[in-house]
Design a protein that fits this description.
6 helices; Ribosomal Protein L22, Chain A; about 30% helix; about 240 residues; alpha+beta
Length: about 240
């Protein structure tokens, strides 16, 4: 079973500041109904319209909370009022702050699953993050056969049966984080690159899409969730923060 990198989740300092090569990872639980009106008031018209497209009220609530928290954190890093931030989007929908509001070249990514949202922030370099809630009833082998490479399938079936579900999520989150860092979303074929877990917590990407140097990291969170982060460059320094409303 692959091991995840140790993470000591702590409260953030009052002033958020990033230096080159530093990665800030945040986790937030999307359960604070009392703060919902506040976060909803921060969203733009297009974000509110997207929230309305959710069929289930719980999904709508979690989207509003996750997006409102994102704006709050971005506002703290950029010293801009959260409601005043403007997003632009890549060809496959990856968000970024518009150039004239982003003088420090802050790069970020967001993911949420079940009751948890996760955020990654760094300077200058592309970054992607993915979090997945562990569904013990998931038909993971069928999904893996459809989306995993031959090398990944070999790794998966070599695991003891009781550990395969967890190992599946380790592979899946790494793959998702990588394609999100590339800005490709699900438009990139998942079986056309391989994630390989090596000794000493090293993770290798074998990919025809890869340009430059990339680093992948699995992050401790809880027994119910797996988080993976992908970022350009190497020898990055990590800080882990627990968001409180």
């Amino acid at each position: 079973m692959t091991k995840v990198s140790g993470a000591a989740w702590s409260s953030a300092p009052g002033h958020l500041f990033l230096t080159a090569g530093e990665i800030h990872i945040w986790r937030a639980y999307l359960q604070d109904l009392e703060s919902l009106p506040l976060y909803q008031s921060l969203l733009s018209a297009d974000e509110l319209a997207r929230a309305e497209r959710y069929h289930f009220a719980d999904d709508k609530r979690k989207y509003i909370l996750a997006r409102g928290i994102l704006r709050t954190l971005l506002g703290r890093y950029l010293n801009i009022e959260p409601a005043a931030l403007h997003f632009e989007y890549g060809k496959q929908g990856k968000p970024a702050i518009v150039f004239n509001q982003n003088k420090i070249n802050l790069q970020f990514n967001i993911s949420h699953s079940a009751d948890m949202a996760c955020y990654a922030f760094t300077l200058n370099e592309a970054i992607g993050i993915d979090v997945e809630y562990h569904n013990e009833e998931l038909a993971y082998l069928e999904i893996a056969k459809r989306f995993f490479s031959a090398k990944e399938m070999e790794q998966l079936i070599q695991q003891p049966e009781m550990q395969q579900n967890s190992f599946f999520y380790s592979l899946w989150t790494c793959k998702e984080a990588y394609i999100k860092a590339l800005g490709q979303g699900l438009f990139l074929a998942l079986d056309q690159f391989s994630i390989q877990f090596l000794p000493c917590n090293k993770i290798l990407i074998e990919s025809a899409y890869q340009t430059g140097r990339w680093e992948l990291k699995l992050v401790n969170t809880s027994a119910e969730y797996t988080i993976a982060v992908a970022m350009a460059g190497g020898n990055n320094r990590f800080q882990y923060y627990e968001y409180s409303h």
